[in-house]
Amino acid sequence: MKPLRFLLTGGFYGLSDVSVKLLQMAALLWLAKICTKQEYGNFGILISVQQIITLLALGGNIETMSSMLNRFRVKNRLSTLFSSVMQVTNISSVIISICFILICLYMLKTNIAFGSIKVYILALLCGLLIARFMLMTSIFQLQERHGMAILFKTVPFFLAYLLGYVIAKINNDHISGYYEGVLSGLLIFIFVKSFVIKAAKSKFHKKIIMIFYKKSLPFLGIVVIGWMSGMGMNMILKILFSNKEIAEYTMINNFNAVLLLTISMLSNVWNPRFYLIAAKFPEGYLNRANNKVFQVQLLILSTISALMLLYFKDILGLLGGNLLGYGEIHPYLLISYSSYIFLILYYQSVSYYLLHNRGALIFKINLITGVIGTLAWVLFMLLVGTWGIYLGFAVQMVMRGGVIFWYAFKEWGVRVSISNLLSGFLILFAAYFISNSAMGIVMRTAGFFSLLLAVASVYWIIHRRKFADYLEYIS
What we know:
2 domains
């Protein structure tokens, strides 16, 4: 692929990610605006269910498919590989559906309160279809059919979230209406696609399917742990707290999505350059380059987080409705955003594991820190109550980033700038306290950007001689 085409393709992928995430966030904020916390708490449980269904349906199939790519490319059997992974996902979807319906029937029979079975079935179907679209996107990417990949990555979700908004607005049961709309959007895309793109016939490859299940099985542990560290925690909150806490935690995750998207975009920009430098230059040069780039990325992440904190209450006031009741989660948002300052250590270090073929070690560390971190999280909730939800979240994030970084520090000399970490925290906490001051929005904005300018000036004075090196690393 030519450099210009490569950059344009990467830009379109980034734009599609941002567009879909922003539209999804807008739909979820609108639901929070028109729903009570009781209703939005139920919605948080449904999102949690939908996510785990998607993750289980995929079950590590994308990673397994990628690892088997070279083996099948040599034998000119890529179509066999791709059809097999689709068959595996179809089989998994059937098994998940049967198990899910049996669980629902059992809960109905035993009078366990969990809400309308109809909306849970809608969440099941949405989760399975989303898994299918994600898998199709990955297949098109591996085939280097990037136009089709962007199409499957964007259009069905645009239709889903737009129809989710429309039908939720006209339906008295907003949550059920939202899922009816999302499912309708996904099905419309499938219906139109069936006329435009003819499905290729494929044989049933039992041996390859068994290989997929064998290789994918270890990923299930990571899938569940990853789910529990996000929206899956709503299941624990349902046991320990009320729908109010579930609604607030779901709202925090809506705003966290902005930071995750930022980290993902920054990593996608740097990672190709990282491996290119690793192939051409000694490790010392690579470490300096990686450190400098992540110093800048940390400041970018801190600034975006700070702006979200600074204008959080203004955003709620502008949108109005039931969102006004979420102003009390402001300090929880500060804790959550502070956690992402530590998570940047994970992304700074993880490329070294892949560079040195230590992917299995990443898997092991993620599994161990995930289990211990989740247990610590639950313990904090039991000991501290509502604050424990967010303090425990911070602990597991620090553990996740810290252990990965510590091993990379010992093995490959990865470094972190302590002054940059402190600067990031300073910017966050300053934004929080300025936002809670009695000043108007203009004075708050002026105060924050004055502080930001001061921090940037100090950073420039200290690192001005090295700034040319940074430009060299990213060019």
